[in-house]
Design a protein that fits this description.
With 204 residues, the chain is α+β, with helices and mostly antiparallel strands. It is 49% helix and 16% strand.
Length: 204
């Protein structure tokens, strides 16, 4: 968002550095524009009424569109859309990270969060932590995704074992694992796309 704000002020001929610094005082990194109260909005707009009002409208609209798009794209029936989404989110990360997508009964995204961060080449993930988060959010199902900084998109033996454990626990808890993704900067791998839906025989 910082780059967008800077570019916005610069395009309008404002002192982009000064205006961006002021913006960051009101809205630090990670601030949810949709939760902004009327007093904060009024104070910020008063700093530069014409420009700041337009900026807030643009950022608010952007966050609304982003949230709407995220709800639509996560579906077990549309793995390609999720694969590209996960690739955009994780593909360029320098450390291996595991992200968890939690879904409701309509297969809409209700949570997308990092659950583990590893070294350059490996990550140590706990199924217990994953299911704790899923149950806390009252999720219906889940999808797991992690990146390979090495650029190799194919799953390792450890990746397959981890997916197997998540599937088995999900079956026991009634919280199914719908798919498992691996992403790099240039590609993604989907367990369901490459090998078909999970079946008990897969893990015999």
């Amino acid at each position: 968002m910082k780059k967008q704000v800077f570019s916005f002020y610069k395009a309008l001929g404002e002192d982009a550095a000064a205006e961006s610094a002021r913006f960051n005082l009101y809205f630090p990194e990670g601030y949810d524009m949709l939760s902004m109260d009327a007093e904060t909005e009024a104070d910020f707009v008063s700093e530069n009424p014409r420009v700041n009002r337009a900026l807030l409208h643009a950022l608010f609209a952007g966050q609304m569109m982003s949230k709407h798009a995220q709800k639509r794209l996560i579906s077990a029936k549309h793995s390609e859309a999720f694969g590209h989404f996960a690739q955009a989110e994780l593909g360029t990360l320098k450390q291996e990270q595991v992200f968890l997508a939690l879904l409701n009964t309509q297969l809409e995204l209700i949570s997308w969060e990092v659950v583990f961060v590893g070294t350059l080449t490996e990550v140590s993930a706990s199924p217990r932590e994953i299911f704790q988060r899923a149950l806390h959010k009252n999720a219906y199902a889940m999808i797991i995704a992690h990146n390979h900084p090495s650029g190799k998109v194919q799953p390792s033996a450890a990746d397959r074992l981890f997916t197997r454990r998540l599937h088995e626990l999900g079956q026991l808890l009634g919280l199914p694992l719908l798919d498992a993704f691996i992403v790099t900067k240039d590609a993604y791998w989907s367990r369901v796309e490459e090998e078909g839906p999970f079946e008990e025989s897969d893990f015999a």
